[in-house]
Amino acid sequence: MFNKKTIDIAVLGAGPAGLTAAHALADKGVDFVLLDREQHTNTHSYALALHPETLELLDSLHIVEPVLKKAQRLSRATIFDDNHRQRAEINYSELPVKYPFLAVIAQDKLEAILVKTLADKGHRPMWNHRVRCIEQSAAHLAFTVDRLTEGMTGYAVAHMETEIDKVFEYKANYMIAADGHESIARTSAGITFPEINQGLDYAVFEFETNSRLLTEMRMIIEGSRTHIYWPMGSQRCRFSFQMPPGFAQRHSFNKDHQWVDSDAQHVPELSNRHLNLLLKRHAPWFIGSADDVKWRAMVHFEKHLVDQFGKKRIWLAGDAAHMTPPAGMLSMNIGMHEAADLAERLSMDRSDEVRQFRLNAYNTDRSGEWRRLLDMDHRIVGHDATARWLLDHHENVVGNLPASGESLEAVLKQLHLTEAA
Ligand SMILES: Cc1cc2nc3c(=O)[nH]c(=O)nc-3n(C[C@H](O)[C@H](O)[C@H](O)COP(=O)(O)OP(=O)(O)OC[C@H]3O[C@@H](n4cnc5c(N)ncnc54)[C@H](O)[C@@H]3O)c2cc1C
């Protein structure tokens, strides 16, 4: 009845973080399995930009070329105030990095490339494999995996339902848990996921327009709210308008694996009329048609950070460990680095003692990095008018800039800000 399997590393979740871990493990020749409960990659653009350092990471995994082929390169990001005045600018082309730009690529396209290139390395995600009941012992991890199928049920009205087709009992030495914000691995390890700040509600619209699109990312800061514009290539762009608290449901931050959200079509706040009103009010500089809406959603973005990045044999990467505001695309970009970092630490020396030592250092390094990214120790300072205005909007700006890694310092400098020692 139960099939037993033994593996060195289990990667849980085939989102951007889990797929990155799989690439890094494949390159190192490590024995691993990549499990995901869904049938395929997700179907929307969600986190749609890669930072310069993430492009370098993809380069080191030999997969940057196909990503760049599908991406739009952006060299500029600007920050505007409520009088539609530009307050600050980031010029990526001046950064001392190999890829001095943001690469705009819809998350579904990125995931599809990660899956395709992983197949070229001889590995595939095991879709329809849902992990439950993870237990840690001193010697190993044991967990149960349900293989799912869709079956037709119902007498009067037939409908599809997910059924368990087979159950597997796995043993693994370690788990890279990239299973998203509701991580079962995190819960099993007993790691808490405190809210570090109030969540933010957004109305998100993606549409095609008839006008020439501005080729920069733009943040519009109005009091405590931040609206966001991204050009996406092929006459398509995304506007995310921050709405009052309570606008979106808490459970709205869930990946939708369907192409069309039929509910969203009929919500008045997501109507074309409301979109045109929001554009007029918050982005009067946008001139062009906005009727051809391809995706609309109300999303509640929470802000969470784990109190530790792993315990014993379960180690976290991506949304399983953090959730951040939407403009900076931080959670996905940093999550991909974390996943590759875990793969590297687990493959360098395979003795348990050395692995434990390196994993404990992972916790210290990653916690330190997030303290810096979110400026939790209030080290960012600046004294001229630009800096003062940005610091007055600390909540809107910090942890919400599309920048990370070593270039963050240079980006802050362009914004007239520095990190005090
Ligand atoms: C509507 C929406 C809009 C978004 N917009 C933005 C944005 O504008 N900016 C931004 O920065 N971010 C945005 N995001 C967030 C972004 O998509 C995430 O940061 C990113 O997906 C994180 O990648 P990840 O690999 O860590 O986790 P995920 O992409 O969540 O992947 C986790 C994977 O684990 C699998 N999984 C979970 N539990 C199990 C289990 N028990 N067994 C097997 N598999 C399991 C899931 O099926 C999933 O494929 C948005 C998300 C949503 C839902």
Radius of gyration: 22 Å
Q: Regarding quaternary structure, how should these chains be classified? A: single chain
Number of helices: 11
The portion of residues assigned to helices is 25-40%
The order of strands across the largest sheet is 6-5-12-13-14-11-15-18
Bound ligand species: flavin-adenine dinucleotide
CATH class of the largest domain: Alpha Beta
Total domain modules: 3
Distance between the termini: 60 Å
Unreliable stretches (pLDDT < 50, length at least 5) are: none
Largest sheet: 8 strands, mixed
Say how many strands there are.
20
CATH architecture of the largest domain: 3-Layer(bba) Sandwich
How would you classify the helix and strand content by structural class? Answer: alpha+beta
Percentage of residues in DSSP E strands: 25-35%
Backbone shape? globular
User: What would the CATH topology of the largest domain be?
Assistant: FAD/NAD(P)-binding domain
> CATH H-level name of the largest domain... which superfamily?
FAD/NAD(P)-binding domain
Secondary structure elements and pairings:
Layout: E1 2-12, H1 16-28, E2 32-35, E3 49-50, H2 52-60, H3 64-70, E4 72-74, E5 76-80, E6 86-91, E7 102-104, H4 107-120, E8 129-136, E9 141-153, E10 159-177, H5 184-189, E11 195-208, E12 217-222, E13 225-233, E14 236-243, H6 272-282, E15 292-305, E16 310-311, E17 314-316, E18 322-323, H7 330-348, H8 352-373, E19 380-381, H9 385-392, H10 394-397, H11 407-414, E20 418-419
Parallel strand pairs: 1-2, 1-10, 5-12, 10-17
Antiparallel strand pairs: 3-7, 4-7, 5-6, 8-9, 9-10, 11-14, 11-15, 12-13, 13-14, 15-18, 16-17, 19-20
Helix pairs in contact: 1-4, 1-7, 7-8
Bound molecules: flavin-adenine dinucleotide.
